[in-house]
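User: I've been trying to design a sequence by hand for this structure and keep getting stuck. Would you show me what you'd pick, starting by listing the structure so we're on the same page?

Assistant: Good idea, let's start from the same input. This is the structure you sent:
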């Protein structure tokens, strides 16, 4: 495949001579340039996303796509903004994955297995088939975090599911009909509210903000003209790449105020 830049900002660049490949979008055959993502291929043939698209960067989980490949019996799932089209791909969009979502007051819940059992009892139906892990576009060990919850290990579930983008592909595949992304969100909330050690430095910073120790910086900014603001922005200091732990900005008056 030729090496070139396909995108620039939100524009798709299709260099002349790019090979066209056939794909089936919701049953209709189209020719699209090879190398495009599914999202860009859909737009190339005239579809406009009004739902099922958010970040365009593999973060929001809104663009779940189901597809089959030529000669492959398996059903595949992927993010439209991250998956590249392939010849004879048969695809369709899933704009929304319906899932039961428990409502609760996190402050009144106990971070234990009984809370999980009460709010998401289907979690305990896990068959350990690992289908959810194979479906996850974020390469999260989904079965492992469900199994951790079954054992009442909220912390492990919260840590393992940290990068979940709530796309729902795991739930679509699960034979036990578990709502992985919602139960994992509950685990992360329980962990953050009841189990995680308090961040002392954060408490200190909130206290400093309440004591208005940073207000002078905001006032200084608010009193700048637009031209001064632009100049400051253009002349701002950059942290070095790679990160240097000994680096300090030349201007030190904005550095963290310690008590
Ligand atoms: S797909 Fe469902 S049943 Fe299978 S391991 Fe994952 S959670 Fe368990
Ligand atoms: S755990 Fe499930 S909802 Fe979360 S990113 Fe993976 S497949 Fe999507
Ligand atoms: S649009 Fe956000 S993950 Fe694809």
């Amino acid at each position: 495949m030729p090496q070139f830049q396909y995108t620039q900002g939100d524009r798709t660049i299709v260099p002349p001579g790019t090979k066209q490949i056939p794909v089936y979008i919701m049953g209709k055959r189209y020719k699209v340039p090879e190398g495009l993502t599914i999202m860009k291929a859909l737009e190339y043939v005239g579809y406009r996303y009004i739902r099922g698209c958010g970040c365009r960067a593999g973060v929001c989980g809104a663009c779940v796509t189901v597809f089959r490949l030529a000669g492959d019996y398996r059903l595949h799932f992927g993010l439209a903004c991250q998956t590249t089209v392939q010849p004879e791909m048969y695809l369709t969009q899933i704009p929304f994955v319906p899932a039961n979502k428990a409502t609760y007051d996190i402050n009144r819940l106990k971070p234990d297995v009984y809370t999980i059992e009460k709010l998401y009892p289907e979690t305990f139906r896990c068959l350990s088939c690992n289908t959810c892990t194979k479906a996850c576009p974020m390469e999260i060990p989904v079965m492992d975090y469900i199994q951790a919850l079954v054992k009442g290990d909220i912390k492990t579930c919260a840590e393992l599911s940290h990068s979940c983008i709530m796309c729902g592909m795991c739930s679509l595949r699960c034979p036990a009909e578990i709502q992985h992304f919602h139960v994992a969100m509950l685990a992360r909330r329980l962990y953050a509210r009841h189990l995680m050690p308090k961040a002392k430095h954060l408490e200190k910073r909130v206290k400093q903000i309440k004591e208005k120790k940073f207000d002078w910086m905001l006032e200084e900014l608010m009193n700048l003209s637009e031209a001064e603001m632009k100049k400051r922005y253009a002349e701002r200091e950059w942290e070095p790449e790679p990160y240097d732990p000994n680096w300090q900005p030349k201007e030190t008056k904005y550095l963290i105020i310690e008590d």
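That's my pick for every position. To get oriented when you compare it with your attempt: Residues 106-195 form a domain with the Fumarate Reductase Iron-sulfur Protein; Chain B, domain 2 fold (CATH 1.10.1060.10). The first strand starts at residue 7 and ends at 8.
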